[in-house]
Specification:
Elements lengths: L3 H4 L11 E7 L3 H10 L7 E4 L5 H4 L1 H6 L25 E3 L8 H5 L2 H17 L6 E2 L3 H13 L2 E4 L3 E3 L1 H18 L3 E3 L4 E6 L5 E5 L2 E10 L6 H11 L3 E3 L2 E10 H8 L6 E5 L6 E8 L3 E6 L5 E6 L8 E10 L8 H15 L5 E4 H6 L5 H5 L11 E2 L8 H17 L9 E8 L3 E3 L12 E3 L10 H21 L1
Parallel strand pairs: 1-2, 1-10, 2-7, 10-22, 18-19
Antiparallel strand pairs: 3-6, 4-6, 5-13, 8-9, 9-10, 11-21, 12-17, 12-20, 13-14, 14-17, 15-16, 18-20
Helix pairs in contact: 2-15, 6-15
Bound molecules: flavin-adenine dinucleotide.
């Protein structure tokens, strides 16, 4: 992995580098919610650092998507103030077991639910639109009966839909509130290295100066999980590895997914395959949305999806992911995922791969000519038609093909030969530091939160772990 600093060389020294009570690395949902909680009236000196741009600069990512911005930073999707969530589909799952397993982290369902409601109220306080989609329980129960026949499960979930534009507005107002209460936000500032000094203070070496802190929260998101692992190992924190999700993004005509998206806006379907008994699931469904390209700091590419409140496509896309857990001797599933991403990136010449399902099933590569024969016009054009089975392990391809066939029973047409498949879509949240209920690692004063620490897989739980970490930090500072 290329360190952030190598791609983003040192900037001008920032005079605000100095001593703080709390330093937060990463201004995604986890970091921002932690900062808001910490800033509630204690007079603490708080700094948040983020390697990416501020929201105003990142907004060009929205225009780039429409093809009107040639020169903007492709890293904007994942990196920058607001985090990966700032330009996400903005669907906030109002359940603790979707987007992570918050109930397991706090050890109680009701407590976890209260925390999700608290996150949701905070979003509304900062301008999230009054747009909660209730699951249609009549449709859900009909689908559940169908799903049971193909050994699939549908999870009904209430969702607040902010849309990409709405999410950016919420982040904007959070940043204004934080700066208004004296929190220092250092954008374009990469944390390079973290150490603990003999006096007990944490020393954070950044691309724009050195910061010291009594307590440190690391919330660098999926894009920073490899960096996080290095730091945790150096600081002596105990780390375990969780599973990794590897798969593709599927794009179909909007009407094909309607049986599912009419029941639940972003339906969560879980399938166990008959051949390998592997878990395959839908994730981040974007009705009438767009497929987008992700660029990681190490230069690898991947795909994701977005929905806008106003701009609509004719298609629906969703992630289709296989969950794999590795053991003995290779436990580091992040590294496994990265090696697949590197291979896929090479095969695609630096772009994600696209393939018609027809071609994938027949073992032939797609070409633009073959893609054009599909009745679906791809919403992401910056891709290379190719053969996904050369990039993803055979077991994963088999799981995905079987899963699509089963999903087709619930949404006929999903496994049509014309369906478009983009790869790779990999979720790097398998680094899992050992934490207590306040998100403190085995190193006193060192806290973690969000996707990078494997504690969440979505906006809702990332934000909730940020709140938990902030409460833990307040307790820690009071007791030291
Ligand atoms: C396109 C897209 C669509 C999505 N749609 C949804 C959705 O609809 N609903 C949902 O629930 N979830 C969605 N997600 C997932 C959701 O956005 C994440 O779960 C959430 O953002 C994780 O929050 P986080 O704070 O843990 O990390 P992130 O949001 O990834 O934020 C981490 C921040 O840390 C910074 N950083 C990393 N390393 C360093 C370093 N060394 N120094 C300084 N800064 C660093 C990064 O720049 C980044 O801003 C989507 C994600 C993407 C990419």
């Amino acid at each position: 992995m290329i360190e952030p600093a190598a791609r983003h060389p040192a900037g001008a020294p920032d005079p605000r580098a100095g001593s703080y009570d709390v330093v937060i690395v990463g201004a995604g949902p986890a970091g921002l919610f932690a900062a808001l909680e910490l800033a509630r009236g204690r007079g603490l000196k708080i700094a948040i650092i983020d390697g990416g741009d501020r929201v105003e600069q990142r907004k060009c990512a929205l225009r780039a998507h429409a093809g009107r911005c040639a020169g903007c930073n492709p890293c904007n999707t994942l990196y920058g103030v607001g985090g990966a969530g700032a330009f996400s589909a903005g669907t906030v799952n109002l359940r603790p077991d979707v987007g992570g397993d918050l109930h397991e982290l706090v050890g109680d369902w009701d407590e976890a639910m209260k925390l999700i409601e608290y996150v949701d109220r905070t979003l509304v306080e900062f301008g999230a639109p009054d747009n909660v989609r209730e699951p249609d329980m009549e449709l859900v129960s009909k689908l559940s009966a169908l799903a049971a026949r193909v050994n699939a499960r549908i999870i009904p979930v209430r969702q607040r839909v902010m849309g990409t534009e709405g999410a950016a507005g919420v982040v904007d107002s959070m940043v204004r509130r934080l700066e208004g209460s004296g929190v220092v936000i250092m954008d374009r500032t990469w944390a390079l290295e973290v150490n603990r000094e003999q006096n007990g203070l944490f020393k954070v070496k950044t691309s724009r100066g050195v910061l010291h802190a009594r307590a440190l929260l690391l919330s660098p998101g999926r894009g920073g999980s490899a960096w996080l692992l290095d730091q945790l190992r150096k600081l002596g924190a105990a780390v375990t590895f969780g599973p990794v999700d590897i798969g593709v993004r599927v794009e179909v005509p909007y009407h094909v997914m309607r049986p599912l998206t009419d029941a639940v806006h972003d339906p969560k379907i879980v399938i166990y395959t008959s051949k390998y008994d592997d878990k395959v699931r839908t994730f981040c469904t974007n009705p009438r949305g767009f497929v987008i390209k992700e660029v990681y700091m190490d230069g690898t590419v991947g795909v994701n999806g977005e929905t806008y409140l106003k701009r609509k496509s004719e298609n629906t896309n969703f992630a289709f992911l296989v969950t794999l857990r590795l053991k003995d001797p290779m436990e580091n599933a992040v590294e496994y995922g990265r090696s697949i991403a590197r291979l896929a990136t090479k095969l695609g010449g630096g772009k994600p791969l696209i393939q018609r399902l027809y071609d994938l099933e027949r073992g032939q590569r797609s070409t633009w000519d073959r893609i054009r024969r599909s009745n679906i016009s791809p919403t992401l054009k910056d891709v290379t038609p190719g053969d996904i089975s050369l990039a993803l392990p055979h077991r994963i391809v088999e799981d995905l093909l079987e899963g699509l066939k089963r999903l087709d029973e619930l949404a006929p047409g999903v496994a049509s030969p014309q369906t478009l498949i983009y790869a790779p879509e990999i979720k790097y949240y398998s680094v899992r530091p050992v934490v207590d209920k306040s998100m403190m690692t085995t190193v006193p004063g060192l806290f973690v939160a969000g996707d990078g620490a494997g504690l969440s897989r979505g906006f809702n739980v990332a934000a909730a772990t940020g709140v938990l970490a902030a409460r833990g930090i307040l307790h820690y500072l009071d007791s030291t």
